[in-house]
Amino acid sequence: MNERDYQLIEDYLNGSLGASETAEVEARLLQDTVFAEALAQQQDLLAVVDKKVEDNLRMLLAEEEVKLSNTVTSPTISISKWLSVAAAVLVLATASWFFSRKGSSPSGPTLFTENFTAYTNIIAPNRRGENDESRLSLAFLAYDNKQYKKAITDFEVLKNDTLKSELTFYIGVSYLAMDEIEKGIITLKDEAVDNKFAMEKQWYLALAYLKKNDIGAAKIALNNALRLSTDPVLGRKVSELLDEIKSIE
């Protein structure tokens, strides 16, 4: 994976590629598992952001509808009038959400919630139609199904045989997903394993420190992630998060 690959993924998900580049991406998705997993990971991250925006807008629109129902008493109000009001409310709600988010100073735990998503399983992806019942695949099947407690138990057994660094990383992420932040930090800081997923470990450590509202430690971890940068997409997220936490120091 290089810078162009990550840019292709970003443009593909944004719908800004031409026909030839779109065909290139779709062909690579069938042939290049690393490329496909990178795209899936970025897609997951975008889905989390989109869901949060959608939920906030739906809540604001519902509140405004209640206000309208309490103030508009005429039974003859036209449908087109109501729709125009609803559309205006949606526009205002969108603007309100973005301006309030931009102007506010989010807390560390809020930034954790907004940025945390379990790292994509790139070790033993469970492909549709396949029936792989190896111990490693079953452990990652539990992880993919958010059965993190079972996944941790299985990973702990397996890491004694193989993939020690990789499985230690996924154990740490699983602890964070279960809101067991201290265990997650201890696991991700384990120096007895090598530096595989080094940048990603620092990213998740930063999120864990944010959950504890330890802004100083979070900044150190984010700067370590930039120093170890191997993923331009994650690198941009690290830089953006560093900018955000400046407002809560």
Choose one word for the global shape. globular
Order of helices and strands: HHHHHHHHHHHH
Count the E strands.
0
Number of helices: 12
Question: What ranges have pLDDT less than 50 throughout 5 or more consecutive residues?
Answer: 72-77, 79-85, 90-103
Average predicted confidence as pLDDT: 79
Quote the beta fraction.
under 5%
- Gyration radius (Cα, Å) is 22 Å
* Computed structural class: mainly alpha
Helix content class: over 70%
N→C terminal distance: 35 Å
Largest sheet data: none
Task: Supply database-style keywords.
mainly alpha; single chain; 249 residues; 12 helices
Would you kindly provide a written description of the structure presented here, covering whatever features stand out?
This protein is mainly α and 249 residues long. The protein has helices at residues 3-14, 19-31, 33-71, 79-103, 108-115, 135-144, 148-158, 164-177, 181-188, 198-211, 215-227, 232-245. Helix 5 crosses helix 10. Mean pLDDT is 79; it is low at 72-77, 79-85 and 90-103.
